[in-house]
Amino acid sequence: MKQKEETTKEVNIDDIIKRHVYWAVGAGLIPVPIADIAAVTAIQLDMLKQICNFYEIDYSEEKGKSWIGALVSSTMSSLVARVGASAVKSIPVVGTVVGAASMSVLSGASTYALGTVFSDHFKGGGTLENLNKEKIRQFYEEQVKEGKKVAKKLKDKYLKVMQTPEGKEKERKIGSRLKELSDMKKNKLITDEEYEKARAEIMKNLMGKE
Question: Cystine design at 35: which of 40, 76, 171, 178 (Cβ 3.0–4.6 Å)?
Answer without folding.
Answer: 178
